[in-house]
Amino acid sequence: MEPLYDAIISLKQISTLSKHEQLVQGIVECIENETLVVGDQLPSINQMVENIGYARKTIVKAYEELKDRGLVESVKIKGYFILSTKTDVVLKVALLLYSFHRFQEEFYNTFRKELGDRYQIDIYVHHNNLEAFENIISSIYGKYGAYVVAPIENPLVRPLLETIEPSKLLIVDRYLDLGYNYSYIAQEFEHSTHDRLTEILDVIKKYDKIILYFRKDVDYPIGVLNGFQRFVEENELIGEIEKNYQPNSVQKGVLYFFIDDTDLWELFRDSLKMGLVIGKDIGLLSHNDHIIKEIMSGGIATISTDFNEMAVKAANFVKNGQLIHEIVPSYFIPRNSL
What we know:
Layout: H1 2-10, H2 19-32, H3 45-52, H4 56-68, E1 72-75, E2 79-82, E3 91-97, H5 102-115, E4 119-125, H6 130-140, E5 146-149, H7 157-161, E6 169-173, E7 183-187, H8 190-199, H9 201-204, E8 209-213, H10 222-234, E9 239-242, E10 254-258, H11 261-273, E11 283-287, H12 291-295, E12 301-305, H13 307-320, E13 325-328, E14 330-333
Parallel strand pairs: 3-4, 3-5, 5-6, 6-7, 7-13, 8-9, 8-10, 10-11, 11-12
Antiparallel strand pairs: 1-2, 12-14
Keywords: DNA-binding, Transcription, Transcription regulation
Pfam families: GntR (PF00392)
InterPro entries: Peripla_BP_I (IPR028082), Tscrpt_reg_HTH_GntR (IPR000524), WH-like_DNA-bd_sf (IPR036388), WH_DNA-bd_sf (IPR036390)
């Protein structure tokens, strides 16, 4: 380890570098000149104290920064090891999403663009499966400088996420209360669904009834269902809730409200086959906007948050680490399908 010690000691002459920055830079230089390669073990904290003369907390801080950048990993009992030689990466980010549907892809693309090439983003998907969620958290714990997580609505999730340092964790999409010290940028579903539907009450009254397709056994937000039911009851409308759209069941005079795009496209195809005019004979309303809904057959009206805005705010959290508590609004986006 003499070359590593020499590299760090030589940086003591640079007065603009703090002690922990000298340690980080010395290790980075040794990685870049291949004095250190993947799998090499770094000196223990005690060895660093003895040979460099800095306090334990300074050395721990330097090692933790290198872990956050994905250059170093800590192995319990054994110590610290070189994990990567990508020294241009300033932070390694774990992004854990429900799935990778179109609107989540848009979130990722904006998130990636805002952070730039010097941030390494690893994507994980849990599909609203608790066992998958637990396994992912277990496998990524302690290996990233930031964790951006769309949580599952399950009481067992909270203690899992509380193992992550608050300053490194951002909750996105679904709200989960982890206490004041944890950041979130999330949606609210019940009031926003109710209020957006109320905004277009006159349009909805054109139709004989409104059907919401909603399944409780998947990851649909229960707030959408609650908001829909309250809206229908308050306005004395004929409203129905169905699990799935049944092929060839489309009826004239009905407004169809979809959470899942698969059912939406199925009904869309049936309406074309049956010669029904969307926006006149039937109405279509969808949850979560994306570009295909904007351009498809004159556009499909949606109730949606701005996922690009959410992604920009999430990227800002990763870059500056400032605590944020924000519920992002949902909007009604009018198009020809109503």
